[in-house]
């Protein structure tokens, strides 16, 4: 087993993350040829790393676990065997713009490092294990397909016709795009309405960022869209000022391309921040783990404390990495949403009886809340 024991987010514009794995000391003696990691998340997809021993070399491979038809994931990745003496003696190979698809979901190199070098070049740690870093950066996810257009889509009785893309995976959810070719507007008929759907996990609202391109030479390009999807998983439909005939150039299919950028599960809670007897609320994350949020007005500015109440359920000898953020909404819809300072946040949790809580500060003066 390749044990994942550290994740570092570099907070750069490429969303770089470094995953460090421990390979067991018996790697050199064990007759087993392959060592797998457990699944881990990056770029809103699920991955696994594997290390394959041949007669003379150790290979390193990255596999996309959530590959789905019509989806292409591009990512830069690098495997590094960490040397105990100095980082300049590390062994690294880098692949840029690697393409992962349903048909080709695994990339890597069979000759990552020779078995002889593993021993002779002091890669063995004091514990007898080997450390391998996997750096992932510049991740993109795109779904592209051709949607068939029914022959009778222009008929009057076909006003409710819907064209839909195949389902695709992103952010551990299933999605699709629907096109409604005969959507009437005040100015004309035959305009196309577009709607994004989420088909799995309806326990939370979610906020998603994406863009869409429909057609080819005279294509519609939306630019980046940020939407809240309701409890049913449906985004707000919007109208394209074009017809399906123009977008398809008179063909029997129309090309649809969706670039997915981010999706965040949202839990909403009403919290009486000034009532010391009722200033707590219980929440559940998408993994059904329980949390408690508590307001704090003891300082000059409004703050909140988040407790992981199910921290005792973290498996023994395991660590759970959780990322979260907080935003305060005003009753007055015209006033902007105020986010917690220095968010989003990431924390490691291990099994313990009680969580001491994590404090998040805002720039909202307590006197304004009291007023």
TrEMBL record:
It holds the Pfam family MATH. This is MATH domain-containing protein. The lineage of its organism: Eukaryota, Metazoa, Spiralia, Lophotrochozoa, Mollusca. It comes from the Eukaryota. It comes from Magallana gigas (Pacific oyster). Residues 33-126 form the MATH domain. Signal peptide: none annotated.
């Amino acid at each position: 087993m390749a044990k994942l024991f550290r994740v570092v987010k570099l907070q750069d514009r490429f969303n770089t993350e470094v995953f460090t794995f421990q390979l067991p000391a018996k790697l050199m003696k064990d007759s087993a040829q392959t060592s797998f990691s457990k699944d881990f998340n990056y770029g809103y997809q699920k991955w696994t790393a594997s290390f394959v021993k041949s007669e003379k070399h150790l290979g390193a491979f990255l596999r996309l676990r959530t590959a789905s038809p019509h989806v292409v994931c591009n990512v830069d990745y690098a495997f590094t065997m960490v040397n105990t003496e100095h980082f300049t003696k590390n062994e690294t190979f880098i692949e840029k713009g690697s393409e992962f698809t349903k048909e080709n979901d695994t990339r890597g190199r069979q000759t990552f490092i020779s078995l002889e070098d593993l021993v002779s070049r002091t890669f063995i740690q004091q514990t007898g294990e080997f450390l391998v870093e996997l750096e992932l950066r510049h991740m993109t996810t795109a779904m592209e397909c051709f949607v068939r257009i029914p022959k009778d889509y222009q008929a009057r009785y076909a006003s409710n016709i819907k064209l839909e893309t195949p389902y695709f995976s992103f952010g551990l959810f299933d999605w699709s795009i629907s096109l409604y070719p005969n959507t009437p507007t005040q100015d004309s008929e035959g305009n196309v309405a577009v709607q994004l759907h989420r088909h799995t996990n309806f326990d939370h609202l979610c906020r998603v960022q994406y863009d869409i391109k429909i057609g080819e030479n005279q294509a519609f390009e939306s630019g980046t869209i940020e939407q809240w999807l309701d409890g049913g998983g449906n985004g707000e439909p919007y109208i394209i000022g074009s017809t399906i005939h123009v977008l398809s150039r008179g063909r029997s299919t129309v090309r649809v391309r969706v670039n997915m950028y981010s999706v965040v599960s949202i839990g909403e809670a009403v919290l009486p921040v000034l009532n010391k007897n009722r200033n707590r609320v219980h929440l559940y994350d998408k993994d059904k783990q329980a949390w408690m949020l508590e307001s704090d007005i003891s300082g000059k500015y409004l703050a909140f404390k988040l407790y992981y109440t199910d921290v005792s359920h973290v498996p023994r000898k395991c660590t759970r990495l959780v990322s979260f953020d907080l935003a305060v909404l005003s009753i007055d819809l015209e006033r902007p949403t105020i986010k917690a300072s220095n968010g989003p946040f990431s924390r490691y949790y291990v099994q313990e009886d009680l969580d001491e809580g994590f404090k998040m500060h805002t720039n909202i003066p307590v006197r304004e809340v009291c007023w």
